[in-house]
Amino acid sequence: MKININFFLVIIFFTLGNFVYAQGSEITQPVMRTNLGQISRLCLENSFDVQIAQYEVDINRTDLKASRSIYDTNLNLDAGYLNNQHKSVYSLSGTKSTANNYSFGLSKKIFSGTNIAVDFIGQRNSTDSTSVSITPAYEAEAKISLRQPVGKKYFGLIDRGRIKITKLQIENSDYTALNKIEQALAKAQIAYWNLVLKYEEHLIETNMLKKAESLYALFKKKKELGLIEDAELFAAHANVAKRQSNLLGTEHNLVAANNSLLMCLHLENLEISLSPEEKLDVMRFEPVGTVIALEIAFANRRDYQQARKEVEIKKINLKLKENSLWPEIDLQTSFSHNGVNASQSKAWQDITAQDNPEFYAGINLHFPLENTLARSNRDRARLEKGKAIISLQKVELLIQIGIDTCVDSVNNILQKIKLEREIVGLQKSKLAFEEKRFNAGRSTTDTLIRYQEDLLNAKLSLVRNLFFYKQAEIDLKLAQNSLLAEYSGDEL
Q: Contact 365/327 with Cβ under 8 angstroms?
């Protein structure tokens, strides 16, 4: 696939038009606002993996032209000169004879397996023999001949079968390329949602740092008033330092996630900061049905289509190998006209001016008596067909097991998200209640900090399960081979 230059230029101009200045920093950083749809399209336009898969498809499709080359028209040219001065036992044969031969013709095999040839042959003969009436003599001949197999290769059966096998093999190679493209797309989408996750983790850590700083500021005032001990102030200060450390970790994770997504899109400018427009969320909590998911999978799974086509290939191959058991029986026929004259031009004119036809019909038979090779190939083809059928059944079972696992994963994470949201609400209420108790002097610093930590962990667990849900959705679509069709129509 060639890179869409116009689309790429739009991205560049868009990024150059969006600069964000970090607070307190003199360095500018281009920011590109993006969403899942834009990321997916950019991946399909620009990914090296996608382009390589496209080239593989184009390379494999050249095999079809090669298989059809048996029907090409051939031009045949021939020329020769003979000077014969051998001694002869016949007194009338002369002591010297010369011959100039030339010919040109066309030959072609058609879909019925018939070989057709049209030839034009010219000769010039000269001799010092007294028994020859015309010397030098020119002979011209126009000839059409046909050869038709009626046994092995019956009416082009094997040729057509091999072309059909090549078509099916090319279709299977297309499926393989589409799988590679879809996997590249899934990788980019997961990288996008991972970036969204890192943004949300960073936001959570930032908010928790603000809470820790507020608590520390409150404790410093209380310390000045002599209302708390040094240990409590130290605990609040350590809590701030811990939150700052965690925030630094999320900042690094954010940069790593951004670079991973840029790599999936094969954008070389690592200075671009991708800013997702979407949030990690679940809008519908309806469970996925296994039956419907399986129907989609069997309608779209490329390995299933490949396995079915492989069975068809083996059936065709078995038919061809069974045909190879037959004897080679070829019907041959030819028809020609000639002309002989002391003038070359008149010799060619005599082909149509005079009625000098020659007609030939014959049959050719060739059959190895033991026929060991053909029988061995036939037996092998039968076994390969049986193997292909078993492989198809295995693919069907693998699809059922894989889809059931993916569906269970999606539904399981949905249930966990419900519980995680409930836990976050409870942890918020718990912290708010403990803050009231603390302000009333009925709680300790350690308890308050621990409750902040509980809320932080609950929020992080929720957003991570939301990410796992997005990943599970992509895995399900990948298992169904339905992901690529949403963005490209599943076409190469």
A: yes
Give every CB contact of residue 372 below 8 A, 6+ residues apart in sequence. none
Ramachandran area for residue 488 (φ above 0: left; ψ -120 to 50: alpha; else beta):
alpha
The answer to pTM > 0.85 is no
Q: Residue 25's pLDDT is what?
A: 37
Sequence spans of domains, the chain: 5-65+161-312+385-488, 73-149+328-366
Task: Render pLDDT for 289-298 as a digit per residue (tens, 0 to 9).
Answer: 999 999 999 9
Q: Which of 40-49, 124-133, 269-278 has the lowest mean pLDDT?
A: 124-133
Contact 281, 460 (CB under 8 A): no
Nearest to 466 by CA among 405, 419, 406: 419
**Architecture, CATH, for domain 5-65+161-312+385-488:** Up-down Bundle (1.20)
Task: Compute CA 27 distance to the chain's CA centroid, rounded to the nearest angstrom.
Answer: 42
Cβ partners under 8 Å of residue 45, min gap 6: 1, 3, 4, 7, 8
